[in-house]
Amino acid sequence: MNNFSALSFSEITLFGCIVALLLVWAVAIKGYALWTAARRGDRWWFVILLVVNTVGVLELAYLRLVAKITKKPEDTSVTLKEWQRQEQ
Length: 88
Prior knowledge:
Number of helices: 4
Number of domains: 1
Helix content: over 70%
Order of helices and strands: HHHH
Oligomer: single chain
Shape: elongated
Largest sheet: none
Strand content: under 5%
């Protein structure tokens, strides 16, 4: 016979809360990392971050190491007034 004891309600509730918090954390950090990679034009990082699920570890490494070290592409957009001045 098995002598496994059943989990109590409080243990199940605690486990459920931990899983829910972990899920929210993973989705939030993955979304931010994907947004950053797309905005910076890092196609390979975007694909890797999209496919690999590391519960936020790889995403944090990208945001803290890669995105902070390399510079963002410069904003080349021009306002209408600046463009009109350049044309004259």
